[in-house]
Amino acid sequence: MTRMNVGHDRAPVWAIWLLIAFGAVQPLVWNVPGGVMGRPFALVPILVVWVTLLVLAALATRRITSLLGALNQRDHAHRATLGEIEQLQTQNAMLETIARSVDVPLAFQELASRIERLVPCDRVGLALLSEDGQELQTYTARTEKGARRQRTLPEIIFKVERTIIGNVVRSREPFITGDIQASAADHLDANVVATAGFQSALIMPLISTDRAVGTLSVVSRRPNVFHRSHIAPLLPIAEILAVAWVAQQLQITIGRYRTVEAFSDLTLAVSTEINSALQTIVGHCDRIARANTDGGIERDLDTVVKQTGRIALLLDKMRSGARQQMREVSPTMGADAQADGAGGGAVS
Predict the structure, then answer these.
(1) Which has more pLDDT, 255 or 174?
(2) Parallel, antiparallel, or unpaired: how do β-strands 175-177 and 135-142 relate?
(3) Which residue, 230, 173, 180, 164, is CA-closest to 206?
(4) What gap in Å lies between CA 315 and CA 267, rounded to an integer?
């Protein structure tokens, strides 16, 4: 859409006034040889025409200025509507992408170009908090066409301490800087970004159910590019990524729980079968011992019974370990499911 420029559009108004001034001066110049003072009645029609032109010019100027103001208002409203449409399209594309793939870093790579259209930048970054909350796995996506990366492995893993993204996760507040070099000495991630030639950065926290799980960042090679007005377009995108990451972690936890559950069931089933076999062995040994008085056979049978008891103790340890694993996984499953349910309610 063509941008309006009020200064240039008022050029015809000034041209009208210049034409009026020329028309007013020209008759005076024509009357100089004959003497204007000697012909006073010749000046009256000129003054009437001049005043009429001035009134018409003033009315035309006022009308044109009013029309320009109305056009500028419509232009701003149209631009705002286009921005909202672009944002809704980006959110819809994000939901569709995440619905197709549970891999949040891969979905982030596909959506980087749309994020760049909402907030012009040179590169988009994503940082995801590890399960223990001590590290942040970072991913970057270039905004140039055809520069999307196919792999989803983290590029750099930062500790939460001494990083700007770690501070954003702890504070859960956006961070804006127009000179990233000023933070490079104290923060490892700022040093990496500044070394790559970037000067401005906007970092958004990924918050789900009042818990920060990472950050979404945009960077530029020009200084002082980002402002508070850029936070609003990125906020819903950050929320969607946060909920998607929590859902992905829940899927991983569910898979781990099912694996532990299957292993525990198998362990309990096998141990039960082995224990039944051991009881049969012990019973037969007891019968053989009562039917035989040979001391050598008794010693051998005693050894078999002792080893059987040892195996039984090992089976008890296996069963206890399987039950302990189930107890450890169950609270995590409950907490993650509760967080996912609350997060789903927040999105809807």
Answers:
(1) 174
(2) unpaired
(3) 173
(4) 9
Tell me the sheet residues that pair with 219: 123, 201
263-270 LR contacts (CB < 8 Å, sep 24+) = 263/322, 263/325, 264/322, 264/323, 264/325, 264/326, 267/318, 267/319, 267/321, 267/322, 268/319, 268/322
Position 153 scores a pLDDT of 78
Is the pLDDT at 28 greater than 60, yes or no?
no
Q: Where are the domains of the chain?
A: 6-89, 104-235, 251-347
Contact in structure between 207 and 116 (CB atoms under 8 Å): no
Any bridge partners for residue 212, and if so which? 207
* H or E element, residue 216: strand 211-220
Q: Which among 224, 173, 185 has a CA at the least distance from the CA of 201?
A: 224
Taking a C-beta distance cutoff of 8 angstroms, is the pair 135, 159 a contact?
yes
Statement: the pTM of the whole predicted model exceeds 0.85: no
104-235 has which CATH code?
A: 3.30.450.40
Strand-pair partners of 216: 126, 204
Contact 204, 215 (CB under 8 A): yes
- Angle at alpha carbon of residue 219, lines to 171 and 116, rounded to 5°: 110
Highest mean pLDDT among 11-20, 50-59, 139-148, 262-271: 262-271
Residue 126: its H or E element: strand 123-129
Give the separation between CA 9 and CA 74, rounded to whole angstroms. Answer: 15
User: ∠83-87-89 over CA atoms, to 5°?
Assistant: 115
Phi, psi of 153 (to 5 degrees): -70, 145
What DSSP string describes 247-271?
Answer: HHHHHHHHHHHHHHHHHHHHHHHHH
Burial of 117 (0-12, 13-18, 19+ CB in 10 A): middle
Token pair belonging to 14: 């000034």
